[in-house]
Amino acid sequence: MILVSVDDHAIEPPDMFEGRLPAKYADRAPRLERRDDGTHAWTYGGSEYRGVGLNAVAGRPKEEYGLEPTSLDDMRPGCYDIHERIKDMNANGVLGSMCFPSMPQFCGQLFARTEDKDVAKAMVEAYNDWHVESWCGPYPGRFLPLALPMMWDPELTAAEVRRMAGLGCHALTFSENPAALGYPSLHTDHWDPVWAACCDTDTVVCMHIGSSSQLVITSVDAPMDVLISCQPVTLLQCAADLIWSPMFRKFDDLRVALSEGGIGWIPYFTERLDYVYDHHRAWTGQDFGDRLPSEVFNEHVITCFIDDPIGVENRDHLNVDNITWECDYPHSDSTWPNSPEVAHRYLQGVSDEDIDKITHLNAMRHFHYDPFVHIAREDATVAGLRAQAVGHDVRIVSKGRRTSGARATKASDLAVATSS
Amino acid sequence: MILVSVDDHAIEPPDMFEGRLPAKYADRAPRLERRDDGTHAWTYGGSEYRGVGLNAVAGRPKEEYGLEPTSLDDMRPGCYDIHERIKDMNANGVLGSMCFPSMPQFCGQLFARTEDKDVAKAMVEAYNDWHVESWCGPYPGRFLPLALPMMWDPELTAAEVRRMAGLGCHALTFSENPAALGYPSLHTDHWDPVWAACCDTDTVVCMHIGSSSQLVITSVDAPMDVLISCQPVTLLQCAADLIWSPMFRKFDDLRVALSEGGIGWIPYFTERLDYVYDHHRAWTGQDFGDRLPSEVFNEHVITCFIDDPIGVENRDHLNVDNITWECDYPHSDSTWPNSPEVAHRYLQGVSDEDIDKITHLNAMRHFHYDPFVHIAREDATVAGLRAQAVGHDVRIVSKGRRTSGARATKASDLAVATSS
Q1: Contact residues, chain A, for B212 at CB < 8 Å
Q2: Comparing C-alpha atoms, which of B326, B315, B335 is closest to residue B359?
Q3: ipTM above 0.90, yes or no
C-alpha cells in the first residue's frame, strides 16, 4: 500500500519569514512571541493571535485535546520541523503530503485583512516561497505543494497561481464561501480570473472546512462534540454553491477539492442534486444541457476523506477516480500514527485497482505529483517507509495543560478563542 | 403496498377558528383576507402574513413553482378541504397522513410570538382542537394527528401533550433548534417537562426542516437551488444536538422524528458520531456507558424520507425499524400523484418485510396509528384506494402567476418573503 495524503497541516516555524521579505517590510512580518504565561502567540499588524497550532495535538493523550496546543513546546517537533515531519510521516507509512497553512488561516485570511495591500501581497508571496522552498523543498517527492491566494484581488491571485505553477505547485487553498468573508460569492464572475488561471495551469482549488471562518455553533451552550460532528459536512453547502454556480459550466477543466469534507454523504447529496434539478429547474432556470448536476459534480469535484467506511463502501456512487485520502496530521481527527492499520479495516473487500486510486493514484494525477522520480517504489510503500523510521518514537506523551482556559468543551468557546 | 406518510401539510381553511375560541378572544383569531392585488394573506396580531400555502403547488406545472401559491384559488382544493384531500390521497394510493401546520409555522412560532400568552394558549388549543376534530376527525383511520406546542412554556406544552394524547394524538411538532428561536437550547433541562410528557404518553417529537425559522442562505445571490439542495440535511445539525444533549440518556423512551430530513446521509452521520466519540470523549467528557452514540441514535431517532434511493439501499446501516416514508403533499418536493410508482423504483430488491416496515408498519407502531380498525385491509392498499378515486382529476393545471414578485429564484428572496 502507498499512502498519499491531500490534507495535513504545517505549523509555521518562527524563522519562516527570515530573508524572504523586501527589506522595507521585514519588520512587519508575523512574529512568534512568548507570553508571560509561557504560551506562544503570533503578533501581526498590531494584533495577537494565540492559536499557534490550531489543533496540533498529535502524539498527546486524548484527555489533552481541546484548545491545545498553546505553544510550540507542547507539540511534537514534527508539527513545525520538516526533518521531524518526514520521520513522523515515515513512521505512519505516508509517502506524500499536502499541508494547509495554520497561522495565516486556511485561505490567508490573516494577510488579506492587512490594510496595506502591498504588505499583504509581500506576505503571501513570502509564505508561498517558504512553503515551496523550505517546507516542500528539502525532501523531493514527499510533498504536494499548496499555494495561498490573495483573496482581496482575483487578478493577483491568478498571477500567483501562475507563478506557483512555475514552481511545481498545482494546488490553491481557497475559501469554501468567499461571501462569508465579505467577498463576492461563488455565484458571481468575480473569481473568473482565478478559475481561468487554475484551468490554464492544471491547478486544483482546495476548499478546506473552516475556510469561511465559520463554525457550526447551534447554540452558545452546545458541547464541542456538536461542532466536531457537523464541521466536515459544512462542505455540503459549499458543494451546493459550486454546482449551482455557473463556474463548472463556464470552466470545463476546473477542479475543486472538498478538503476534509468526508465522502459518506456525497452519494446522498448528488442524488439530491438530480432530484432538485428534476423538480425545480423549470422555475429556477438551471440548465445543464444534456447532463445531470450529479455528473458535473462527479467530474469536477475531488472528494477527500480521513476515515469514512460508509463512503468507501458506496464508492460506486461516487466517482472513484476522484476520491482521495487524508491523514490530517497533526490534528485531533488524524489517524496518525496508525493510518495504515485504520485504512486496512475499511479497505477490506475493495479491489486493488480501487485501493490504488484512492490511496495515491488519484492524488498523483490531480496534483501533478510524481514521487517515483525521486523515490524507488519499494521505498515508497508503507512497509518501505516504516523501515526508515525504526526507532523513531511515536509514543503518546503528556504535555499537561499550560492554562486552565485551554480546556474548552463548548463549541462557542472555540469561536471566542479563535476569533482574535 | 400500503403507504402511510408521516409528512404532509395542511393548509388552514378560513373558517378553522369558528366556534373554537372563548368569546373574549374570538375577534383576535387569525383572519384570511383578500388583498387588493387578489392575493390572500392571514392577518394576526396586527401583522399580515402572506405565505398562505407556504409551497402548496401540487397539481401545477413546475414552471409555476416558487413563492406560489399566493391565494387559496391557486391551490388544489385538496390543500385545505378535507374531503378533497381524501380524494387526492386516494388517487395517490396513500392510506394515512400526518399533516404539519402552515399558517402558525412548524412549531407554532406565530402564536408563540403573541404578547398576551393567554391569547396564545387559546390559539394553540383551538388549532389543536380543529386539527383533531375537523381535519383528522371526519375520516377515521386516515390521519395521524399532530399537536402544536406552546413553545414559550414547557409546562403548558407538557399539559397540552397529555390533553392531546387523550384525544388520540401521539405526535408533537417541535423546533429542530429552539435556541434559534430565542428559547433555551436542547442542551438544557428546560424542556424536560415536555420530554417527560412525551414519554408518559408515548408521543413522538417531530422536528421538521424549517422549524428553527432558519434557511440555508450561503450568500444573498445564491440561487434558490442551493437552499433546496441543502435544506433537508440541516437536520444533521439538529441530530447532532439531540445525540450530544443529555435528553436521550435521561429519557429512555423519548423518540424524535427528523421530519423531511432524508435518510441517505444518516449512515455517514452515525459513523461520524462514533468517530467523534472515540477521538474526543476523553476531553469533552461525553459518556454513553457501554453503548455507542450511533446505537442511541438508532434507538431514539425516527428517520423520514420522500425519495431517497441511496438511503434505502443503505438501510442496514440505519435502524430499519425506524425508517418512515413521506409524501410531502402538497409541497413542491412531493411525489404526488405518482408516489407508488416512484416508491416502486427505489424499493426494487428490498424484502417484503422491510418494505412493509418502511411504508407503513413503522409509522403505525410509532404513532399509535391503527387504520385497520376502521378500514378493511384490501381497501387500504394502493390499488384499493385508487379504485375509490376513479374519475378524480389529478391532471396538472396552470394557475398562472398573480404577482410578478412571486417568481423568486434567489434563496434570499424566500427569506424576505417569509419573514413578515
Answers
A1: none
A2: B326
A3: yes
